[in-house]
Specification:
The structure holds 2 protein chains of 2 kinds.
Chain A: E1 4-6, E2 10-13, E3 19-21, E4 23-25, E5 31-38, E6 42-49, E7 56-57, E8 64-70, E9 73-78, E10 87-94, E11 101-102, E12 106-110
Parallel strand pairs in A: 2-12
Antiparallel strand pairs in A: 1-4, 3-9, 5-6, 5-10, 6-7, 8-9, 10-11, 10-12
Chain B: E1 3-5, E2 9-13, E3 18-25, E4 31-37, E5 44-49, E6 53-57, E7 60-65, E8 70-75, E9 84-91, E10 100-102, E11 106-111
Parallel strand pairs in B: 2-11
Antiparallel strand pairs in B: 1-3, 3-8, 4-5, 4-9, 6-7, 7-8, 9-10, 9-11
The chains are: A mainly beta, B mainly beta.
């Protein structure tokens, strides 16, 4: 079974902090994705990557950056956290056009 | 741009059949996915359609009409555990590789 592991289930940070969300997958998938999920807005794509050191902007990249130094790891970085970045963050991975597999999510609160 | 519409909420009775519709408008089309998401949990893959027609998988079936930009998810013999949100997602060949655009999800409540 595919395993996508996100480093934290719950995280509380303060406004202005630099926040790192980590995601690791164990199936050698080339594609990795970061989404945020908000009530009434659904899943929205922040960034994705289809190879090591490659990154592409999704629909809402502002205020975020990503890093993919190794194939199995995709990190989401909030450069200077703001309260409007309080959300559920979901990481996913896939192989080609196969279904995306999701991690359990990180519920991030910015105070 | 992309636009994916599905009903916000539905209620159905245990043992019954329910159909959740999804309409989409995208610049290209590489396939349509359905995911199930229980409250507080990650989405899990249910079905994938790339050609027109019906795909059946146990109690769940999914249908696609590419010419109409339309899909539905059919759940038979509903069980209480089917209470969840159901997400429709389209892979748009005009967007980035393997990128999915999700609808806002349909929250299904199964009542006794």
């Amino acid at each position: 079974d595919v395993k996508v592991t996100q480093s934290s289930r719950y995280l509380v940070k303060r406004t202005g902090e630099k926040v790192f969300l980590e995601c690791v997958q164990d199936m050698d998938h080339e594609n990795m994705f970061w989404y945020r999920q908000d009530p009434g807005l659904g899943l929205r794509l922040i960034y994705f990557s289809y190879d090591v050191k490659m990154k592409e902007k999704g629909d809402i990249p502002e205020g975020y950056s990503v890093s993919r130094e190794k194939k199995e790891r995709f990190s989401l970085i909030l450069e200077s956290a703001s309260t409007n970045q309080t959300s559920m963050y979901l990481c996913a991975s896939s192989l080609g056009h196969q279904p995306q597999h999701f991690g359990d999510g990180t519920r991030l609160s910015i105070l | 741009g992309q636009n994916i519409d599905q009903p916000t909420e539905m209620t159905a009775t245990e043992g019954a059949i329910v159909q959740i519709n999804c309409t989409y408008q995208t610049s290209g089309f590489n396939g349509l996915f359905w995911y199930q998401q229980h409250a507080g949990e990650a989405p899990t893959f249910l079905s994938y359609n790339v050609l027109d027609g019906l795909e059946e998988k146990g109690r769940f079936s999914s249908f696609l009409s590419r010419s109409k930009g339309y899909s539905y998810l059919l759940l038979k013999e509903l069980q209480m555990k089917d209470s969840a949100s159901y997400l429709c997602a389209v892979e748009d060949s005009g967007a980035g590789s393997y990128q999915l655009t999700f609808g806002k999800g349909t929250k299904l409540s199964v009542i006794p």
